[in-house]
Amino acid sequence: MKLPNFEYFEPNDIQEAVAILQKQPSARILAGGTDLLVNMKHRVELPEVLVNIKRIAGLDGIESDDHGIRIGALTPLKRIYSTPWIGERLPALAQAASSVGAYHHQSMGSLGGNLCQQNRCKFFNQSRWWRSSRPTCYKAGGDICHVVNQKEICYSGYCGDVAPALLVLNATVTLAGAGGTRQIPLEDLFTGDGKAPLQLDRTEVLTEVAIPRESLDVPSSYIKFANRESIDFPIVGCAFLAAGTGKEYRIAFTAVDRKPVRGKKVEAFLKGKDLTEDHLKESSGLAAKAASPARTTVYAPSYKRKLMGALVHKAANKAMRRPD
Ligand SMILES: Cc1cc2nc3c(=O)[nH]c(=O)nc-3n(C[C@H](O)[C@H](O)[C@H](O)COP(=O)(O)OP(=O)(O)OC[C@H]3O[C@@H](n4cnc5c(N)ncnc54)[C@H](O)[C@@H]3O)c2cc1C
Ligand code: SF4
């Protein structure tokens, strides 16, 4: 499959990148390209201008200080999980980064690109030839949805592996754009709108992810349930973190809704309790209610809900280093 034609820029700094994005309304940021270029080959995303940010210095690196850890948006996923102290101090992050796609996606794919990847749907992420057998759907520019009988809502699902891990780590992201720089909780980056899943101004570049000190050196884990061990998006992914000594837990899921979601009801149920097998079994039913999966994959929403319950149990045991 060939790429469509596009104009190409390689800015040297953020200001130059932002200026190009401002001038070119259809411009898109290119990082590793493992998501965007595939979508362009499928003709589901057709930007006329690509702004490759890989030449910009200072966007690629992992630093720690008194406040916690800062990871540049261009840092490859492989670098994250191969940094030994990340595996020791932030196990959920290392486990999530190492579960993405295959080796090539991990070495080319960046942290920022992983967080900002497009939502997915079995009727959208297909070649133009495959899609030509049906009317064009709303997300691809038409006025029909093949999943839900509504014309103006897209239920495509967020399937990134790293976001749930960063959600339980209470990460924030820094965005640089024409209006200056702002820092927001990662949770606020996602809109829950399948057609425009990110709360980003079109001139904004995600430059950095910050993880607070309180999320370091506490038990955490990520479990991905997928069809194959490699080159597969999650059917469901679940991250778990046990915070401090107060029996407080954070739980997040991916691939179950239009954005990555926190399991707030399960967290409330488990708060103050020991992670006994009985409590974890009881929490499974609540986990299933944390999201509203749609028929955007070949897996039934009811199956995904059951998996959510099972994965909370497994992720908790993995975080506490207990046998399953
Ligand atoms: C076969 C296959 C399997 C895959 N499996 C998985 C999987 O299991 N789990 C998973 O999570 N992903 C998977 N992916 C998706 C993708 O490979 C990864 O998410 C990867 O981390 C994307 O990073 P990238 O740097 O290549 O992003 P790119 O493709 O360069 O960009 C992705 C999107 O993010 C935007 N973007 C990139 N960087 C920034 C930034 N700094 N600021 C603002 N916007 C930005 C781009 O404009 C684009 O819309 C898979 C892809 C393929 C093709
Ligand atoms: S949920 Fe509907 S509108 Fe969205 S990608 Fe799927 S078919 Fe298209």
Short account of what is shown:
The protein is built from 12 helices and 12 strands. A hairpin with a 2-residue loop joins strand 4 and strand 5. The strands form 3 sheets. Strands 4-5-8-6-7 form a 5-stranded antiparallel sheet.
3D architecture notes:
There is one protein chain. The chain is α+β, with helices and mostly antiparallel strands. The protein has 2 domains: 1-55, Uridine Diphospho-n-acetylenolpyruvylglucosamine Reductase, domain 2, CATH 3.30.43.10; 62-116 and 157-319, Enolase-like, domain 1 (2-Layer Sandwich). The protein is built from 12 helices and 12 strands. The protein has a 5-stranded antiparallel beta sheet with strand order 4-5-8-6-7. The protein has a 4-stranded antiparallel beta sheet with strand order 9-10-11-12, sandwiched between helices. A 3-stranded parallel beta sheet has the order 1-3-2, covered by helices on one side. Helix 5 (91-98) runs antiparallel to helix 9 and helix 10 (264-270) packs antiparallel against helix 11 (277-287). The longest helix has 19 residues, at 301-319. The relative contact order is 0.13. The model has no long low-confidence stretch (mean pLDDT 95). The structure holds flavin-adenine dinucleotide (FAD) and iron/sulfur cluster (SF4).
